[in-house]
Protein backbone atom coordinates (compact mmCIF):
# COMPACT_ATOMS: atom_id res chain seq x y z
CA UNK A 1 0.00 0.00 0.00
CA UNK A 2 1.24 3.46 -0.88
CA UNK A 3 1.28 6.69 1.02
CA UNK A 4 1.32 9.85 -1.06
CA UNK A 5 1.06 13.30 0.52
CA UNK A 6 -1.62 12.31 3.03
CA UNK A 7 -3.45 10.07 0.58
CA UNK A 8 -2.90 6.42 -0.13
CA UNK A 9 -2.64 4.82 -3.56
CA UNK A 10 -3.03 1.06 -3.57
CA UNK A 11 -1.06 -1.27 -5.78
CA UNK A 12 -3.58 -4.08 -5.90
CA UNK A 13 -5.20 -5.11 -9.16
CA UNK A 14 -8.87 -4.57 -9.81
CA UNK A 15 -11.19 -7.43 -8.87
CA UNK A 16 -13.55 -9.24 -11.21
CA UNK A 17 -17.08 -7.94 -11.50
CA UNK A 18 -19.52 -9.67 -13.80
CA UNK A 19 -22.58 -7.43 -13.79
CA UNK A 20 -22.83 -3.66 -13.53
CA UNK A 21 -26.24 -2.57 -12.30
CA UNK A 22 -27.22 0.69 -10.73
CA UNK A 23 -29.47 0.62 -7.66
CA UNK A 24 -32.80 2.32 -7.37
CA UNK A 25 -31.88 5.96 -7.18
CA UNK A 26 -32.99 8.63 -9.62
CA UNK A 27 -30.45 9.57 -12.29
CA UNK A 28 -30.30 13.15 -13.48
CA UNK A 29 -29.99 13.97 -17.15
CA UNK A 30 -29.69 17.70 -16.71
CA UNK A 31 -26.35 18.25 -15.04
CA UNK A 32 -24.85 21.63 -15.77
CA UNK A 33 -21.58 20.39 -17.23
CA UNK A 34 -20.53 23.92 -18.16
CA UNK A 35 -20.85 25.07 -14.55
CA UNK A 36 -18.97 22.00 -13.37
CA UNK A 37 -16.21 22.66 -15.93
CA UNK A 38 -15.84 26.24 -14.77
CA UNK A 39 -15.58 25.13 -11.16
CA UNK A 40 -13.15 22.30 -11.93
CA UNK A 41 -10.74 24.80 -13.48
CA UNK A 42 -11.29 27.40 -10.76
CA UNK A 43 -10.13 24.85 -8.18
CA UNK A 44 -6.55 25.28 -9.33
CA UNK A 45 -6.55 28.88 -8.14
CA UNK A 46 -7.01 27.56 -4.62
CA UNK A 47 -3.85 25.46 -4.98
CA UNK A 48 -1.61 28.27 -6.19
CA UNK A 49 1.70 29.03 -4.56
CA UNK A 50 3.58 32.29 -5.06
CA UNK A 51 2.39 35.81 -5.86
CA UNK A 52 -1.31 35.72 -6.66
CA UNK A 53 -2.64 37.86 -9.52
CA UNK A 54 -5.23 40.60 -9.19
CA UNK A 55 -7.86 38.47 -10.96
CA UNK A 56 -7.58 35.65 -8.39
CA UNK A 57 -11.16 34.42 -7.98
CA UNK A 58 -10.78 32.44 -4.76
CA UNK A 59 -10.18 35.60 -2.77
CA UNK A 60 -9.68 33.85 0.57
CA UNK A 61 -6.22 32.83 -0.65
CA UNK A 62 -3.19 35.15 -0.55
CA UNK A 63 0.52 35.11 -1.43
CA UNK A 64 2.59 32.23 -0.08
CA UNK A 65 5.94 30.49 -0.54
CA UNK A 66 7.59 33.71 -1.68
CA UNK A 67 11.10 32.68 -0.66
CA UNK A 68 11.01 29.24 -2.26
CA UNK A 69 14.41 28.46 -3.75
CA UNK A 70 16.47 30.90 -1.73
CA UNK A 71 18.78 28.19 -0.37
CA UNK A 72 19.91 27.57 -3.97
CA UNK A 73 19.91 31.29 -4.76
CA UNK A 74 17.25 30.67 -7.38
CA UNK A 75 13.59 31.56 -7.89
CA UNK A 76 11.31 28.57 -7.32
CA UNK A 77 8.17 30.54 -6.52
CA UNK A 78 4.90 29.57 -8.13
CA UNK A 79 3.46 26.19 -9.02
CA UNK A 80 0.81 24.25 -7.13
CA UNK A 81 0.43 22.62 -3.76
CA UNK A 82 -0.54 19.09 -4.66
CA UNK A 83 -3.38 18.48 -2.25
CA UNK A 84 -4.45 19.63 1.21
CA UNK A 85 -0.90 20.34 2.32
CA UNK A 86 1.66 23.06 1.53
CA UNK A 87 4.34 21.09 -0.33
CA UNK A 88 5.20 21.43 -4.01
CA UNK A 89 5.85 17.89 -5.23
CA UNK A 90 7.26 18.02 -8.75
CA UNK A 91 6.25 14.52 -9.82
CA UNK A 92 2.48 14.82 -9.39
CA UNK A 93 2.56 18.50 -10.41
CA UNK A 94 4.07 17.56 -13.75
CA UNK A 95 1.47 14.82 -14.27
CA UNK A 96 -1.28 17.30 -13.39
CA UNK A 97 0.12 19.64 -16.03
CA UNK A 98 0.27 16.90 -18.66
CA UNK A 99 -3.37 16.03 -18.04
CA UNK A 100 -4.54 19.65 -18.12
CA UNK A 101 -2.70 20.11 -21.41
CA UNK A 102 -4.06 16.85 -22.83
CA UNK A 103 -7.53 18.03 -21.83
CA UNK A 104 -7.06 21.16 -23.93
CA UNK A 105 -5.50 19.27 -26.84
CA UNK A 106 -8.35 16.75 -27.07
CA UNK A 107 -11.33 18.76 -25.85
CA UNK A 108 -10.35 22.43 -26.00
CA UNK A 109 -12.67 22.97 -28.95
CA UNK A 110 -15.55 21.97 -26.68
CA UNK A 111 -14.64 24.51 -24.01
CA UNK A 112 -16.50 27.81 -24.01
CA UNK A 113 -14.02 30.57 -24.89
CA UNK A 114 -13.65 31.91 -21.38
CA UNK A 115 -13.04 28.46 -19.94
CA UNK A 116 -10.43 27.63 -22.57
CA UNK A 117 -8.60 30.78 -21.52
CA UNK A 118 -8.92 29.78 -17.85
CA UNK A 119 -7.62 26.29 -18.61
CA UNK A 120 -4.58 27.75 -20.36
CA UNK A 121 -3.99 30.04 -17.38
CA UNK A 122 -4.10 26.98 -15.10
CA UNK A 123 -1.58 25.19 -17.30
CA UNK A 124 0.72 28.18 -17.48
CA UNK A 125 0.77 28.57 -13.70
CA UNK A 126 2.34 25.13 -13.62
CA UNK A 127 4.56 25.35 -16.70
CA UNK A 128 6.10 28.67 -15.62
CA UNK A 129 7.20 26.84 -12.48
CA UNK A 130 8.32 23.68 -14.28
CA UNK A 131 10.51 25.77 -16.58
CA UNK A 132 12.29 27.05 -13.47
CA UNK A 133 12.91 23.49 -12.30
CA UNK A 134 14.91 22.63 -15.44
CA UNK A 135 16.57 26.00 -16.00
CA UNK A 136 19.99 24.99 -14.66
CA UNK A 137 22.24 22.65 -16.66
CA UNK A 138 22.38 19.03 -15.46
CA UNK A 139 20.05 19.71 -12.57
CA UNK A 140 16.34 19.30 -11.93
CA UNK A 141 14.51 20.64 -8.90
CA UNK A 142 11.99 17.99 -7.88
CA UNK A 143 10.34 19.37 -4.74
CA UNK A 144 10.01 22.35 -2.41
CA UNK A 145 9.02 21.86 1.22
CA UNK A 146 9.82 19.25 3.83
CA UNK A 147 6.72 17.02 3.84
CA UNK A 148 7.44 15.49 7.23
CA UNK A 149 7.55 18.90 8.89
CA UNK A 150 4.61 20.13 6.82
CA UNK A 151 2.40 17.17 7.68
CA UNK A 152 3.12 17.73 11.35
CA UNK A 153 1.37 21.10 11.13
CA UNK A 154 -2.08 22.31 10.25
CA UNK A 155 -1.57 25.85 9.02
CA UNK A 156 -2.47 28.11 6.15
CA UNK A 157 -0.01 28.36 3.26
CA UNK A 158 0.13 32.08 3.95
CA UNK A 159 1.40 31.35 7.48
CA UNK A 160 3.60 28.34 6.91
CA UNK A 161 6.82 28.51 8.89
CA UNK A 162 7.95 24.94 8.26
CA UNK A 163 11.27 24.39 6.52
CA UNK A 164 11.09 24.96 2.76
CA UNK A 165 13.74 22.44 1.84
CA UNK A 166 14.62 22.42 -1.83
CA UNK A 167 15.15 18.94 -3.26
CA UNK A 168 17.40 18.91 -6.33
CA UNK A 169 18.91 16.12 -8.40
CA UNK A 170 22.24 16.79 -10.10
CA UNK A 171 23.69 14.65 -12.87
CA UNK A 172 24.78 11.91 -12.95
CA UNK A 173 22.23 11.10 -10.24
CA UNK A 174 19.00 9.94 -11.90
CA UNK A 175 15.51 11.41 -11.79
CA UNK A 176 13.99 9.70 -14.81
CA UNK A 177 10.39 9.62 -13.62
CA UNK A 178 10.25 13.30 -12.63
CA UNK A 179 12.29 14.51 -15.60
CA UNK A 180 10.36 12.23 -17.96
CA UNK A 181 7.02 13.47 -16.69
CA UNK A 182 8.26 17.06 -16.83
CA UNK A 183 9.22 16.47 -20.45
CA UNK A 184 5.73 15.12 -21.13
CA UNK A 185 4.12 18.11 -19.39
CA UNK A 186 6.15 20.70 -21.29
CA UNK A 187 5.67 18.92 -24.62
CA UNK A 188 1.91 18.57 -24.15
CA UNK A 189 1.65 22.17 -22.99
CA UNK A 190 3.60 23.31 -26.06
CA UNK A 191 0.80 21.84 -28.15
CA UNK A 192 -1.87 23.49 -26.02
CA UNK A 193 -0.25 26.93 -26.50
CA UNK A 194 0.82 26.50 -30.11
CA UNK A 195 -1.92 28.65 -31.65
CA UNK A 196 -2.40 31.24 -28.90
CA UNK A 197 1.24 31.83 -27.92
CA UNK A 198 3.69 30.27 -30.40
CA UNK A 199 6.74 31.84 -28.76
CA UNK A 200 5.89 30.34 -25.38
CA UNK A 201 5.09 27.06 -27.11
CA UNK A 202 8.59 26.97 -28.62
CA UNK A 203 10.16 27.65 -25.21
CA UNK A 204 8.19 24.82 -23.66
CA UNK A 205 9.19 22.40 -26.39
CA UNK A 206 12.90 23.23 -26.19
CA UNK A 207 12.87 22.63 -22.46
CA UNK A 208 10.84 19.44 -22.90
CA UNK A 209 13.64 18.04 -25.06
CA UNK A 210 16.20 19.09 -22.46
CA UNK A 211 14.24 17.45 -19.64
CA UNK A 212 13.88 14.25 -21.63
CA UNK A 213 17.61 14.13 -22.33
CA UNK A 214 18.26 14.34 -18.60
CA UNK A 215 15.71 11.59 -17.94
CA UNK A 216 17.08 9.24 -20.58
CA UNK A 217 20.80 9.90 -20.12
CA UNK A 218 20.81 9.32 -16.37
CA UNK A 219 18.35 6.48 -16.01
CA UNK A 220 16.97 5.58 -12.61
CA UNK A 221 14.42 6.54 -9.98
CA UNK A 222 14.76 9.78 -8.05
CA UNK A 223 13.41 8.06 -4.97
CA UNK A 224 16.50 5.82 -4.95
CA UNK A 225 18.65 8.88 -4.26
CA UNK A 226 19.64 8.74 -0.59
CA UNK A 227 19.99 12.53 -0.43
CA UNK A 228 16.32 13.14 -1.16
CA UNK A 229 14.60 9.83 -0.40
CA UNK A 230 13.33 10.84 3.03
CA UNK A 231 11.60 13.83 1.49
CA UNK A 232 9.92 12.09 -1.44
CA UNK A 233 9.10 8.74 0.17
CA UNK A 234 6.63 7.47 1.11
CA UNK A 235 4.73 10.43 -0.33
CA UNK A 236 5.46 10.41 -4.06
CA UNK A 237 7.99 7.63 -4.16
CA UNK A 238 8.48 5.88 -7.51
CA UNK A 239 6.54 2.67 -6.90
CA UNK A 240 6.05 1.46 -10.46
CA UNK A 241 9.44 2.21 -11.95
CA UNK A 242 10.77 5.03 -14.07
CA UNK A 243 10.57 3.19 -17.40
CA UNK A 244 6.99 4.21 -18.19
CA UNK A 245 7.87 7.89 -17.78
CA UNK A 246 10.65 7.55 -20.36
CA UNK A 247 8.21 6.14 -22.90
CA UNK A 248 5.52 8.63 -21.86
CA UNK A 249 7.87 11.59 -22.29
CA UNK A 250 9.11 10.28 -25.66
CA UNK A 251 5.53 9.69 -26.84
CA UNK A 252 4.55 13.26 -26.02
CA UNK A 253 7.65 14.61 -27.73
CA UNK A 254 6.81 12.48 -30.76
CA UNK A 255 3.34 13.98 -30.88
CA UNK A 256 4.54 17.54 -30.30
CA UNK A 257 7.46 17.44 -32.75
CA UNK A 258 6.54 14.68 -35.23
CA UNK A 259 10.27 13.91 -35.03
CA UNK A 260 11.03 10.42 -36.29
CA UNK A 261 13.69 9.86 -33.62
CA UNK A 262 11.02 9.84 -30.91
CA UNK A 263 8.93 7.45 -32.99
CA UNK A 264 11.97 5.18 -33.18
CA UNK A 265 12.48 5.53 -29.43
CA UNK A 266 9.01 4.29 -28.47
CA UNK A 267 9.20 1.59 -31.15
CA UNK A 268 12.61 0.27 -30.19
CA UNK A 269 12.32 0.64 -26.42
CA UNK A 270 8.75 -0.54 -25.90
CA UNK A 271 9.60 -4.06 -24.77
CA UNK A 272 12.81 -3.26 -22.91
CA UNK A 273 11.08 -0.51 -20.95
CA UNK A 274 7.99 -2.60 -20.23
CA UNK A 275 5.36 -0.87 -22.34
CA UNK A 276 3.01 -3.82 -21.95
CA UNK A 277 3.24 -4.09 -18.18
CA UNK A 278 0.67 -3.00 -15.59
CA UNK A 279 -1.70 -1.73 -18.23
CA UNK A 280 -4.67 -1.61 -15.86
CA UNK A 281 -3.62 1.57 -14.10
CA UNK A 282 -3.17 5.22 -15.00
CA UNK A 283 -2.14 7.99 -12.65
CA UNK A 284 0.72 10.09 -11.36
CA UNK A 285 2.91 7.01 -10.85
CA UNK A 286 1.92 4.53 -13.54
CA UNK A 287 1.51 5.88 -17.08
CA UNK A 288 1.05 2.61 -18.98
CA UNK A 289 -2.65 2.83 -19.85
CA UNK A 290 -2.37 6.49 -20.83
CA UNK A 291 0.79 5.78 -22.83
CA UNK A 292 -0.93 3.02 -24.77
CA UNK A 293 -3.96 5.18 -25.54
CA UNK A 294 -1.76 8.11 -26.57
CA UNK A 295 0.40 6.05 -28.93
CA UNK A 296 -2.66 4.26 -30.34
CA UNK A 297 -3.62 7.46 -32.12
CA UNK A 298 -0.64 6.90 -34.42
CA UNK A 299 -1.83 3.37 -35.19
CA UNK A 300 -5.51 4.18 -35.63
CA UNK A 301 -5.18 7.38 -37.65
CA UNK A 302 -1.77 7.07 -39.33
CA UNK A 303 -1.43 3.30 -39.79
CA UNK A 304 1.81 3.12 -37.82
CA UNK A 305 1.70 -0.65 -37.52
CA UNK A 306 5.14 -0.87 -35.95
CA UNK A 307 3.39 0.54 -32.87
CA UNK A 308 0.60 -2.06 -32.98
CA UNK A 309 1.59 -3.54 -29.62
CA UNK A 310 0.61 -0.28 -27.92
CA UNK A 311 -2.85 -0.38 -29.48
CA UNK A 312 -3.28 -4.02 -28.49
CA UNK A 313 -2.49 -3.04 -24.91
CA UNK A 314 -4.91 -0.12 -25.08
CA UNK A 315 -7.64 -2.43 -26.37
CA UNK A 316 -6.91 -4.85 -23.56
CA UNK A 317 -7.17 -2.08 -20.98
CA UNK A 318 -10.53 -0.93 -22.33
CA UNK A 319 -11.84 -4.48 -22.25
CA UNK A 320 -11.03 -4.72 -18.54
CA UNK A 321 -13.53 -1.88 -17.98
CA UNK A 322 -16.43 -3.81 -19.49
CA UNK A 323 -18.30 -5.83 -16.86
CA UNK A 324 -19.69 -8.26 -19.40
CA UNK A 325 -16.30 -8.94 -20.97
CA UNK A 326 -14.64 -12.27 -20.32
CA UNK A 327 -11.43 -10.37 -19.57
CA UNK A 328 -12.96 -8.01 -17.03
CA UNK A 329 -11.13 -7.42 -13.79
CA UNK A 330 -12.23 -3.90 -12.88
CA UNK A 331 -14.09 -3.47 -9.63
CA UNK A 332 -17.18 -1.29 -9.36
CA UNK A 333 -19.14 -0.16 -6.34
CA UNK A 334 -22.74 -1.43 -6.12
CA UNK A 335 -23.90 1.87 -7.63
CA UNK A 336 -21.51 1.67 -10.58
CA UNK A 337 -18.48 3.79 -9.66
CA UNK A 338 -15.09 2.48 -10.76
CA UNK A 339 -13.32 1.43 -7.60
CA UNK A 340 -9.65 0.68 -6.98
CA UNK A 341 -8.86 -0.38 -3.40
CA UNK A 342 -6.21 1.44 -1.46
CA UNK A 343 -6.99 5.10 -1.10
CA UNK A 344 -8.01 8.25 -2.92
CA UNK A 345 -10.34 6.58 -5.39
CA UNK A 346 -11.58 9.41 -7.59
CA UNK A 347 -8.06 9.88 -8.95
CA UNK A 348 -8.58 6.55 -10.72
CA UNK A 349 -12.13 7.37 -11.78
CA UNK A 350 -11.32 10.69 -13.43
CA UNK A 351 -8.17 9.50 -15.20
CA UNK A 352 -9.80 6.31 -16.50
CA UNK A 353 -12.91 8.24 -17.58
CA UNK A 354 -10.66 10.60 -19.51
CA UNK A 355 -9.06 7.65 -21.33
CA UNK A 356 -12.50 6.22 -22.13
CA UNK A 357 -13.49 9.40 -23.95
CA UNK A 358 -10.16 9.92 -25.72
CA UNK A 359 -10.08 6.36 -26.97
CA UNK A 360 -13.71 6.51 -28.04
CA UNK A 361 -12.88 9.56 -30.15
CA UNK A 362 -9.87 7.85 -31.73
CA UNK A 363 -11.92 4.77 -32.61
CA UNK A 364 -14.87 6.77 -33.89
CA UNK A 365 -12.73 8.63 -36.43
CA UNK A 366 -12.11 5.40 -38.29
CA UNK A 367 -15.37 3.65 -37.33
CA UNK A 368 -13.58 1.00 -35.29
CA UNK A 369 -14.80 -1.09 -32.37
CA UNK A 370 -13.20 -3.27 -29.72
CA UNK A 371 -13.22 -7.04 -29.76
CA UNK A 372 -13.30 -8.10 -26.11
CA UNK A 373 -13.47 -11.84 -26.53
CA UNK A 374 -17.13 -12.65 -26.10
CA UNK A 375 -18.45 -9.19 -27.06
CA UNK A 376 -17.71 -6.26 -29.38
CA UNK A 377 -17.86 -2.74 -27.99
CA UNK A 378 -17.99 0.50 -29.93
CA UNK A 379 -17.22 4.11 -29.03
CA UNK A 380 -20.80 4.66 -27.88
CA UNK A 381 -20.43 2.20 -24.99
CA UNK A 382 -17.19 3.82 -23.87
CA UNK A 383 -18.86 7.24 -23.85
CA UNK A 384 -21.92 5.98 -22.00
CA UNK A 385 -19.71 4.41 -19.35
CA UNK A 386 -17.81 7.68 -19.03
CA UNK A 387 -21.08 9.56 -18.57
CA UNK A 388 -22.10 7.21 -15.76
CA UNK A 389 -18.89 7.99 -13.91
CA UNK A 390 -19.26 11.74 -14.39
CA UNK A 391 -22.90 11.83 -13.34
CA UNK A 392 -22.13 9.71 -10.29
CA UNK A 393 -19.46 12.21 -9.23
CA UNK A 394 -21.80 15.14 -9.78
CA UNK A 395 -24.58 13.70 -7.65
CA UNK A 396 -26.26 10.68 -9.22
CA UNK A 397 -25.30 8.34 -6.40
CA UNK A 398 -26.91 6.73 -3.34
CA UNK A 399 -25.71 9.57 -1.09
CA UNK A 400 -27.28 12.18 -3.37
CA UNK A 401 -24.02 14.07 -2.89
CA UNK A 402 -21.89 15.93 -5.38
CA UNK A 403 -18.24 15.04 -4.85
CA UNK A 404 -17.26 18.36 -6.39
CA UNK A 405 -17.15 21.09 -3.77
CA UNK A 406 -19.41 23.98 -4.69
CA UNK A 407 -21.38 22.10 -7.34
CA UNK A 408 -25.03 21.31 -6.65
CA UNK A 409 -26.99 21.69 -3.43
CA UNK A 410 -25.13 19.05 -1.42
CA UNK A 411 -21.38 18.58 -1.41
CA UNK A 412 -18.64 17.84 1.15
CA UNK A 413 -18.32 20.53 3.80
CA UNK A 414 -15.34 19.24 5.79
CA UNK A 415 -12.64 18.55 3.25
CA UNK A 416 -9.10 17.66 4.30
CA UNK A 417 -7.46 20.91 3.20
CA UNK A 418 -5.56 23.37 5.34
CA UNK A 419 -6.36 26.62 3.58
CA UNK A 420 -10.03 25.75 3.25
CA UNK A 421 -10.48 24.59 6.85
CA UNK A 422 -8.69 27.49 8.56
CA UNK A 423 -10.10 31.01 8.67
CA UNK A 424 -8.90 33.13 5.77
CA UNK A 425 -5.99 35.45 6.41
CA UNK A 426 -8.30 38.25 5.26
CA UNK A 427 -10.83 37.40 7.98
CA UNK A 428 -8.23 36.45 10.58
CA UNK A 429 -5.01 38.35 9.82
CA UNK A 430 -3.31 37.18 13.01
CA UNK A 431 -0.69 34.46 12.56
CA UNK A 432 -1.87 30.89 13.25
CA UNK A 433 1.12 28.76 14.23
CA UNK A 434 1.78 25.12 13.38
CA UNK A 435 -0.10 23.46 16.23
CA UNK A 436 -2.62 26.26 16.71
CA UNK A 437 -4.45 25.03 13.64
CA UNK A 438 -5.27 21.71 15.30
CA UNK A 439 -8.47 23.12 16.77
CA UNK A 440 -9.74 23.75 13.24
CA UNK A 441 -8.62 20.34 12.03
CA UNK A 442 -10.50 18.65 14.85
CA UNK A 443 -13.59 20.82 14.51
CA UNK A 444 -16.81 19.16 13.38
CA UNK A 445 -17.93 22.39 11.76
CA UNK A 446 -17.84 23.02 8.01
CA UNK A 447 -14.79 24.56 6.40
CA UNK A 448 -15.06 28.36 6.42
CA UNK A 449 -13.62 28.74 2.90
CA UNK A 450 -15.19 26.96 -0.06
CA UNK A 451 -12.55 25.41 -2.30
CA UNK A 452 -14.74 25.72 -5.37
CA UNK A 453 -14.43 22.85 -7.83
CA UNK A 454 -12.35 20.56 -5.63
CA UNK A 455 -12.95 16.85 -6.19
CA UNK A 456 -12.43 14.85 -3.02
CA UNK A 457 -11.19 11.28 -2.75
CA UNK A 458 -14.77 10.06 -2.86
CA UNK A 459 -16.87 7.29 -1.33
CA UNK A 460 -15.77 3.84 -0.29
CA UNK A 461 -16.46 0.56 -2.03
CA UNK A 462 -19.92 0.55 -0.45
CA UNK A 463 -20.84 3.96 -1.98
CA UNK A 464 -20.79 5.51 1.51
CA UNK A 465 -19.13 8.85 2.21
CA UNK A 466 -18.69 10.25 5.69
CA UNK A 467 -18.07 13.97 5.54
CA UNK A 468 -15.04 13.75 7.82
CA UNK A 469 -11.98 15.98 7.57
CA UNK A 470 -9.84 13.40 9.35
CA UNK A 471 -10.52 10.69 6.76
CA UNK A 472 -8.10 12.06 4.17
CA UNK A 473 -8.47 9.08 1.83
CA UNK A 474 -12.04 10.17 1.17
CA UNK A 475 -12.03 13.89 1.94
CA UNK A 476 -8.75 15.23 0.52
CA UNK A 477 -8.72 16.91 -2.91
CA UNK A 478 -5.71 16.71 -5.22
CA UNK A 479 -4.70 18.49 -8.40
CA UNK A 480 -4.41 15.21 -10.28
CA UNK A 481 -7.99 14.22 -9.48
CA UNK A 482 -9.21 17.44 -11.08
CA UNK A 483 -6.87 17.68 -14.07
CA UNK A 484 -8.30 14.88 -16.26
CA UNK A 485 -11.83 15.82 -15.20
CA UNK A 486 -11.38 19.17 -16.95
CA UNK A 487 -11.19 17.42 -20.31
CA UNK A 488 -13.99 15.03 -19.42
CA UNK A 489 -16.37 17.85 -18.51
CA UNK A 490 -15.43 19.78 -21.63
CA UNK A 491 -16.52 16.81 -23.72
CA UNK A 492 -19.90 16.66 -22.01
CA UNK A 493 -20.44 20.40 -22.37
CA UNK A 494 -20.55 19.79 -26.11
CA UNK A 495 -22.08 16.27 -25.91
CA UNK A 496 -24.40 16.07 -22.90
CA UNK A 497 -26.13 12.98 -24.32
CA UNK A 498 -23.45 11.08 -26.23
CA UNK A 499 -24.12 8.16 -28.53
UniProtKB/TrEMBL annotation:
Alphabetized PROSITE patterns for the sequence: GH9_2, GH9_3
InterPro entries: 6-hairpin_glycosidase_sf, 6hp_glycosidase-like_sf, Glyco_hydro_9, Glyco_hydro_9_Asp/Glu_AS, Glyco_hydro_9_His_AS
Official protein name in the record: Endoglucanase
Keyword Transport part of the UniProt annotation: no
Active site, per annotation: 416, 467, 476
Species whose genome carries this gene: Ziziphus jujuba (Chinese jujube)
Protein family according to the UniProt entry: Belongs to the glycosyl hydrolase 9 (cellulase E) family.
Catalytic activity annotation: Endohydrolysis of (1->4)-beta-D-glucosidic linkages in cellulose, lichenin and cereal beta-D-glucans
Keywords recorded for this protein, A-Z: Carbohydrate metabolism, Cellulose degradation, Glycosidase, Hydrolase, Polysaccharide degradation, Signal
Keyword Transferase appears in the UniProt entry: no
Enzyme class, broadest EC rank: hydrolase
EC number, UniProt record: 3.2.1.4
Record's signal peptide: 1-28
Location of the Glycoside hydrolase family domain: 33-489
Pfam families: Glyco_hydro_9
Gene Ontology molecular function: cellulase activity
A biological process term (GO) from this entry: cellulose catabolic process
Source taxonomy: Eukaryota, Viridiplantae, Streptophyta, Embryophyta, Tracheophyta
Amino acid sequence: MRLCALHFLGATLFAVVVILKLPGFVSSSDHDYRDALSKAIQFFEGQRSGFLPQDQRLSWRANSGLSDGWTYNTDLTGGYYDAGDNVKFGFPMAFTTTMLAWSVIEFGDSMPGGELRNALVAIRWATDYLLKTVAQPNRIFVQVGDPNADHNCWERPEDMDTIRTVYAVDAPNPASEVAGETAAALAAASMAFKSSDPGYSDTLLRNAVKAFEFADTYRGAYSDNSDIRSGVCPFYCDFDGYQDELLWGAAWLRRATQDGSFHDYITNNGKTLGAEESINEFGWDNKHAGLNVLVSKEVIENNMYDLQSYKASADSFMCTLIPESSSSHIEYTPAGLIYKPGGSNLQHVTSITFLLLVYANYLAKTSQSLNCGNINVGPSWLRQQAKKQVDYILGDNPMGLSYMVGYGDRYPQRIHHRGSSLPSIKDHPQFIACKEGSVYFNSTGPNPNVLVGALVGGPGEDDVYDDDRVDFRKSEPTTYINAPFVGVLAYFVANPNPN
